[in-house]
Amino acid sequence: MSQGKNRRLRRIFRENHRTVVVPMDHGVSIGPVKGIENMQETVRRLLKGGADAFVLHKGIAKRVDVENAGLIVHLSAISNLTPNCLNKVQVCTVQEALHLGADAVSVHVNVGAQDESAMLTTLGKVADECDKFGMPLLAMMYPRGPNIKNEHDVTAVAHAARLGAELGADIIKTNYTGNVETFKQVVEGCPVPVIIAGGQKAETTQQILQMVYDSMKTGCAGLSIGRNVFQHKNPTSMVRTLVAIVHEGLSVEQATRLLGETN
Question: Of the candidates 33, 14, 15, which has an alpha carbon nearest to the alpha carbon of residue 23?
Fold first, then answer.
């Protein structure tokens, strides 16, 4: 790995090789939902809680200061208003991200979707550019498509994660499979760090804390959780609690007390 990539990765991962990322790219796919109406204010609150890095689209990255946190510029986009919302297209280049001061870029691939081939082509091309410019690449690899019966199935998730690594990603973000034993298979089958996605807004905060705690047992390198952080009633406390689990090894019981919630 190039020195450029190593230096940038050190701004995303702490010395324990783990990270707490908050993706805030949702304005493109689902609009200005609760929690991201005022991006700078939300980022400020999450920085106060100790977030390590943020995922932003280029237009927001031009306007929002993430201070000393890592900046990951997302290159993929599609809105949920289109008939084919699984077909993520490239809307930003690695060079644009460099001009914005990015520490990494991210690409989204829906493995199993009708347009998987186009998304994989983009991933391969971006991976080559990232190697050229010393830019780390985060691949968001999700099993989604007509033949995917369960997006959290270990076989599908492990395949998606490995696919991203095979095509040049430096970090993989994917779905948690639901338990330690199966997700360990995902992590062990992927030669680059794996971080978990948060998914849809959870019914209870306890579910998120348990998922994060369990995932850390598998050798997972951290998390990239959006709505379950920035839509929490206290985003600062929520991210602070996730940081304590990921970086300090707090148990779910200890984390719940820190957060001051019972659900």
Answer: 33
Separation between Cα atoms, residue 23 and residue 40, nearest integer Å = 14
Tokens, residue 62: 């031009």
Q: Which two tokens stand for residue 215?
A: 């995932």
Residue 138 pairs in a beta bridge with 106, 171
Which has the closest alpha carbon to 23: 72, 75, 59, 77?
72
261 falls in which pLDDT band (50, 70, 90)? low
**Residues assigned a catalytic role:** 25, 142, 173
111 and 144 in contact (C-beta within 8 Å)? yes
Q: Is residue 117 classed exposed, middle or buried when 0-12, 13-18 and 19+ CB atoms within 10 A define those classes?
A: exposed
Which of 220, 129, 241 has its CA nearest to residue 174?
Answer: 220
Which amino acid is present at 203? E
Task: Concatenate the DSSP letters of all residues of 38-97 into one string.
Answer: SHHHHHHHHHHHT--EEEE-HHHHTT---TTSEEEEE-EE--TTSTTTT--EE-S-HHHH
- Domains of the chain listed by start with CATH number: 3-259 (3.20.20.70)
Give the largest Cα separation in the chain, rounded.
49
Q: What is the pLDDT of residues 40-60, one digit of tens each?
A: 999 999 999 999 999 999 999
State residue 82 phi and psi, 5-degree precision.
-85, 150
Tens digits of residue pLDDT in 201-245 = 778 999 999 999 999 999 999 999 999 999 999 999 999 999 999
